[in-house]
Amino acid sequence: MNGWKRNLPGKAVYYFMFVLIVVIVFVPIALVVFGAFKTRTELFETAPFSLPGSFLNMSNFKLAYEQGDMLRGLWNTTVIVTLTLMGNAILGTMTAYILNRFQFRMKKAVYALFLMAMIIPAYTTEIARFQIIHSIGMYDSLSAPISIYIGTDIMQIYIYMQFLEKISNQLDESAMLDGASYGRIFRSIIFPLLLPATATLAILKSVTVMNDVYVPFLYMPSNELVTLSTALMKFVGARGSDLSALCAGIVLVLIPSTAVYVVFQRYIFKGLMDGAVKG
């Protein structure tokens, strides 16, 4: 009993912070969801937290879907996310495998360069990156954001290396004694064992790419290349006074990333914990 009383202040602070975080995160979402189902008259005449007259009112969603070009944005986003995840998985696992298993000159320098890439803000190198993308003919194409997303995810290499620390080198040596090449070892042994980390990183990366507006807007200005985020931004510019339609557009954009996170959240935490604890 005395121990419970001693811990009461700490628990009170813990629960207060938990409730505060929940309020900060979910209150804006609730306002947007309620607004998406309200008419313009309801939105201005009722309290923000009042329920809409009907949750069957889909007129705002229809307007956002048709005029916001959400279908095209969903298709372009799907293509970018799919190719980005494939590139990240291949390059990330191969790079981590080489850095973890092989000894070569300038290895520490490579580590230092990766570390610098993580520390230096990406916006400080934006002018140089833009010039490179434009000069090689990728500007205003889907290949521009795909190459950027693949080439700038340095953190995944360190997460893969944490997983590789748990994989014994004896597996590699046994396979080499049986005549397997390095490529065969990576393809048949290493990569399958890295699938938990790959799944975790793929989920986190897909949510990041779907929510990003800066790179697609800067490198793909054409209307035919809109993503979900840029489609919403252009829809906001076109109908800035129609708050109900804007709320509906926000909800439509939130659905894909939220669904991915909710469905696969257990794999995210499991993968992070497996990589943090060495065997």
Automatic annotation (TrEMBL):
GO terms for cellular component: plasma membrane. Residues 74-264 form the ABC transmembrane type-1 domain. It is found in: Cell membrane. The keyword Cell wall biogenesis/degradation does not apply. This is Multiple sugar transport system permease protein. SUPFAM superfamilies: MetI-like (SSF161098). It comes from Paenibacillus catalpae. The keyword Transmembrane applies. GO terms for biological process: transmembrane transport. Keywords: Cell membrane, Membrane, Sugar transport, Transmembrane, Transmembrane helix, Transport.
